[in-house]
Amino acid sequence: MPDAPSDTVLSASPAPVRAGGELFTEERSADVVAASLAGTPDPRLRQVLTSLVHHLHAFVKDVEPTEAEWGVAIDFLTRTGQMCSDVRQEFILLSDVLGVSMLVETINHRTGGTSTESTVLGPFHMVESPERELGDDINLDGKGTPCLVSGHVTGPEGEPLAGAVVDVWQTNEDGFYDVQQPGIQPQGNLRGLFTTDGEGRFWFRSVVPRYYPIPDDGPVGQLLAATGRHPNRPAHLHFIVAAPGYRPVTTHVFVADSPYLDSDAVFGVKDSLVRDVPEVDDPARAAEAGLPNPFRTLTFDLSLLREEQTPPTARPVDVQPTVVKGVPS
Ligand SMILES: [Fe+2]
Q: How far is the CA of 57 from the centre of ligand 1 (A)?
């Protein structure tokens, strides 16, 4: 084979003239990739992806992962996806334990202190709650510490909301929801769909819920273990409250003496949602409530904004509807 002409071997080729497209460099990586998104027709998608690229590249430049470490990250995300099924959503758990679920939730439901604060829906609102009468006992298997739960639902001026729908669900004394223990707990145990009376009141009999761990037998559990974090959520009752003409609220009420109140694995606790659950030792009141003496009481009043009302601190255009009922999360 003849030798190549020496000038093509020894001297660099001149850079080709490019029409636009800047080549990738470490310094300009985010801008180069972001420029490739400039033609995205949907402006919101363009905004989201452009921001994502800038933050992601900044993260990589901050951390400078080795290729092996990046492989671990890809493997972690792959296993997170593979853990998902009809009854398990590992990506939501990942979002939860990184505080992103709560951040998205909080941004979309700013109250400015004008109504009951919301918190995460959680993964256990998997079935439509059974309709119950005021005063019913939702504790179908008779286990646990009896508790009378009651409250008022009002509008922003304190007007009572008659006919408001109050959807509740909670764990049993062992820290499990009914859907986690089919065949052990009765179906619909510790769930109820109530309607407030003419004065906006609701009340029902239940038990004191218990703290519980989020599912930690998958990649997210490994992440928690690797960072020295526990998987537990403090004891709480879930509420979704809705009334015609008002904005529904999805929230919890937390039991004040529960462990893990200051270290909820999913960051769901807000001060305004914590309530004492005092013991009442009064046979007459117990008889009136239909509970054994002594019993505990939990009072949780809820205030809803009007549908058209914009909370003082909310961005006016992007308020998202709250899931009302029966919708798996
Ligand atoms: Fe929960």
A: 35
Q: List the domain range (segments joined by +) for residue 177.
A: 112-303
Strand order in the sheet with 274-275: 191-195, 165-170, 236-242, 249-255, 274-275
Q: pLDDT tens digits for 43-81?
A: 999 999 999 999 999 999 999 999 999 999 999 999 999
Q: Among residues 118, 88, 116, 91, which one has the least CA distance to residue 104?
A: 118
Q: What is the whole-number distance in angstroms between the Cα of residue 187 and the centre of ligand 1?
A: 17
162 and 217 share a domain?
Answer: yes
Each residue's pLDDT tens digit, 172-182? 999 999 988 98
Half-sphere exposure of 320 (CA within 13 A, CB side): 10
Structural domains counted in the chain: 2
CA of 121 to the centre of ligand 1 (A): 8
- Cα(238) to ligand 1 centroid in Å equals 6
